[in-house]
Design brief:
It is built from twelve helices and six strands. With 333 residues, the protein is mainly alpha-helical.
Amino acid sequence: MASSMVGKTLRTLNSNVLRTLTSTRRQLSLAAAAGDSDQEKSSSTFSSDDPDQLKPASNSYTDDDIYIKGPDKAPPSSASVSMPISSMTGSIVGKRFYQRVTTREAEDGNGWHVMLDYRTLKTPSKRNLKCPTLALAKAIAAEWEYQQTDGIRPFTMPLMKLACTAMERVPVVRPKIIDNLIKKFHHDLVFCRAPTDNGLARGLRELQVEKFGPVIKWLESEFGYRPILYTSFFGGKQEEGLVKAFENLLKKTDDFELGAIDALASAAHSLIIAVGIFRDRLSIEQAIELIRLEEDFQVDQYGLVEGGHDIDIADLRVQISSAALFLGLSRKH
């Protein structure tokens, strides 16, 4: 089910549109928390250094592994396939070097691996890529199966990127991720209201009250605090109890959940919308409507800019949909 669903979704994506998305790609708050040094080079390599090892010996079975090799000062070998991890690039990075994609249960019975022919897909630190559920493993396998013979397109594999992030980056910088999300909480999109004395935004405030109202009521009932709304560009300061409630929620998440929430919050500019998806209070379409509320209001007033607004919408749909799907598929229950 997961494989067919992801495969169908990927086939509907326009590759030319996705290539253009790179100009508007938003950085994960995870990358910001990790520091500029982590952003200088983050391309990784899916490779077998020896081209002859791409095929198993006819008289023996070897469990060679496909792994993501971290950045190296030395030039990559001709058999390497450079795969960016920190952001999707839109470029074709190398020819498809495998025939069959399958999944296999981990030897300890706790998780699932993705197999490219007879090789186990690995993370940048050369650990086996282990998915918590079979559904997520099959979805990532579908992303690899979708790749065409003329080349591998990393920008069509958002679940693979999120899985590597959840396994490799989240455990290392987990406190920084939570701290970064909480720092931005006071400036959350949901708390912002248009000023009443601005003629250019006439009607926007009423729209915000209508659309954000149910979310505010949910926050009150769920966490027991009424959020403080503001019109200032610099935001406001929420009650300490509400901030602590969200901080405790984030601390109770596992690495895959926190990685997905971080990706959602980065794309949405809102931790509340991210948590709303996490708690099944908001659907993908509802979240996108709230995220684009102000911009869509401006589009209705002044028109849509082709090659600008439409690309932003497509970019947002990819980011929100992939992170929400990753979150759902990684849940064991």
